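FW: tagging you since you asked about this chain on Friday. Here's the raw sequence from the shared folder, copied in full. Didn't touch anything.
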Amino acid sequence: MATRIEKDHSRFRNIIRGRIKRNLRKYITSGEMIGKKGRDLVSIPVPHINIPHFRHDPRQSGGVGQGEGDVGTPIGRGDGDEPGAAGQGEGQHILEVDITLEELAQMLADELELPNIEPKGKKSVVSEKDRYTGIAKSGPESLRHFKRTYKQALRRHLISQTYNPKDPIIVPIHEDRRYRTWKTKVEPEAAAVIMYMMDVSGSMGDEQKEIVRIESFWIDTWLRYQYKNIETRYIIHDAVAREVDQQTFYHTRESGGTVISSAYKLASQIVRDEYPVEDWNIYMFHFSDGDNWGEVDTDECVSTLKDQILPVVNMFCYGQVESPYGSGQFMHDLVDHFPEAENLILSEIADKEAIYPSIKEFLGKGK
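HL: got it, structure written out here
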């Protein structure tokens, strides 16, 4: 019975996952999940699911609703003087299911056909893993090997000729107990740093900033699914760039002019000071409305990208959010100056609906 219930539950969960996948774009573009972590459970409303319920066998007598009674006899308790009439339509079943962000990240990868990332550098970070390597006669009870203990007890009974096939009861004694042994193995792991840069100048309205934050959150969720060791840095800029914490990045509201090169120079400096290129996988994401302070600063951006950033990063992604106040010129400048840069990825994000394909543009190459 337990196995059948487990199979039914597994099948039902697969149905739920299918429904979530079909509505994944809607969940991705919602800002309600920002601030959650990978193993946090989030509640996803899944409509139009027939919730399993018990049904009484009509062939059986008795039970709820059976027995004698007169027509018109009220069932249960009621006042009878409440206004309004009973509805005729069938109610909509809305089921809320709990799912982790890691599962949603995997669904996102499946739907967008995102490849697993091939990391570089495995020197700087190590992890300790316990591997079971053998069997011992002593150890903690939590590591007792029941199968080996039983086999040892059976062997003892056979050797002492106390085993009775007609009454095959085997009772292990203390000397029969066997325990798993382990060794701690140190393994190198790939490490990654992600830098998010956001234009918070006056031309970036609240809607544009929300788009940036939602997309940054899901990119971060996916990369954390790919890497066990990851560091995240946040930079905001208007005319001046400064590093901030996650809380400030996701909630700040600032204004002012736009000098994009200030962010690029700060990001480059952080990498030089703290993240050796041979050991770290480096990802940079910059979001702006494409409005920059003149050609002079655009030339500074191009120079910094060409000489300092692109040679060291796995990927530099520029997402241009459409704004009624921004010129959008910076995207054209990057296209003109870097027509063949393989680790520079550009994406235009018109609105929230464009977040979904933009993530695929950024992460679809598996770098």
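FW: The beta strands are 41-47, 94-100, 125-136, 179-189, 191-199, 229-237, 241-244, 280-288, 315-321, 344-349.
HL: agreed, and Residues 46-51, 90-95 have pLDDT under 50 and may be disordered.
FW: great, closing this out.
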